[in-house]
Amino acid sequence: MSNDRKVIITCALNGVLTDPKLFSIPVTPEEMAQSARQAFDAGASIMHVHIRNQEDGLGHLPSWEPQDAQAVCQAIREACPGVIINLTTGVIGEDISGPVSCLEAVKPEMAAMNAGSLNYLKVRSNGQWAWPPILFDNPVEKVEKFLSVMKKHQIVPECECFDVGIIRSVDLFRQAGLLEAPVHISLIMGVASGMPAKAHWLPLLLEEVPQDAHWQVIGIGRQEVWELHKKAAELGGHLRTGLEDTFYLPNGEKATSNGQLIETMAKIAREAGREVASPEEARVMLGLGA
Asked: What's the CATH number where 162 sits?
């Protein structure tokens, strides 16, 4: 298991559907660049980017328009020299042409690669579904198509794992020749129908992660996610937070920006005896080159 003393911090800037009318998330290229710069100055070397619809002026829905992706990612790169872009690819259904067009336009150093399917569910306190039940479908043939595109453009896949069986599938993909070592794994914890946000689960989950893998926790929730991040830092994992993942600080107060969340994460890393990697160091650690 990778146990580098230095820790790579990722900022998940905005997420896929969070309504900017209700929550202060960045949407436009200018907003994304400003928010990324705050996170960059606080210690984030990687920006995980979702592109929002730029035409309606609201930014509530995702965009798979390559010109939108180019505009946003160029603005972030100009604001944060040397930053690593990690672009989302998450889409429901067989048609992956939108995410592929964005990957080809931006050519990010990394991209999220959903490594398995999940019934994406949540129930409200009154027993009603929070949203109509969704199957986030990622069959092997879809995974293969994404990995083929990423390999062609020398994009490193970050395998997002919502459940234990999906973690185990990552090494099966490697054994089948679809992935090359070292693999990059994100343990997504806190989705109601996936792995819970429980720090004491981490040592057991890591038994299923390949020994040479780079790994991090994506903690979805409120202030409870910070115990996960503390444990991940102590166990040698890399770290991610941002307004996609949580709106809350460890004390329960609402975060005012991505920069504030990354400042908190950097403090957790240092308290665990870890140094925060620079973008240049992160590139070397992740095998991304100079």
From this structure: 3.20.20.70
Average pLDDT along the chain: 94
Contact 203, 225 (CB under 8 A): no
Over residues 28-60, the pLDDT tens digits come to: 999 999 999 999 999 999 999 999 988 766 777
Does 194 reside within a domain?
Answer: yes
Q: What is the pTM of this model?
A: 0.95
160 within 8 A of 112, measured Cβ to Cβ: yes
Q: Indicate the burial class of 83 (C-beta count within 10 angstroms; 0-12, 13-18, 19 or more).
A: buried
Upper half-sphere CA count for residue 93 (Cβ side, 13 Å): 5
Peptide bond into 210 cis (omega under 30): no
> Sign of dihedral through CA atoms 19, 217, 10, 241?
positive
Amino acid identity of residue 110, one-letter, is M
Residue 43: give the domain boundaries.
Answer: 6-285
Work out the pLDDT band at 17, boundaries 50, 70, 90: confident
Question: For the residues 232-237, what does the mean pLDDT come to?
Answer: 97
- Number of domains the chain contains: 1
φ, ψ dihedrals at 246, nearest 5°: -155, 150
Q: To which residue do tokens 């005012």 refer? A: 256
Radius of gyration over every alpha carbon of the chain, rounded to an integer in angstroms: 17
Q: 52 lies in a domain? A: yes
Q: Report if residue 290 sits inside a domain.
A: no
> Does residue 105 belong to any structural domain of this protein?
yes
pLDDT attached to residue 2: 46
Q: Which of 102, 116, 118 lies closest to 150 in space, CA to CA? A: 102
3: three-class secondary structure by DSSP: coil
Report the chain's terminal Cα–Cα distance, integer Å. Answer: 24
Rounded CA separation 226/211 (Å): 25
Contact 284, 16 (CB under 8 A): no
Write the DSSP string, 98-141.
HHHHHHHHH--SEEEEE-S-EEE--B-TTSSBSS--EEE---HH
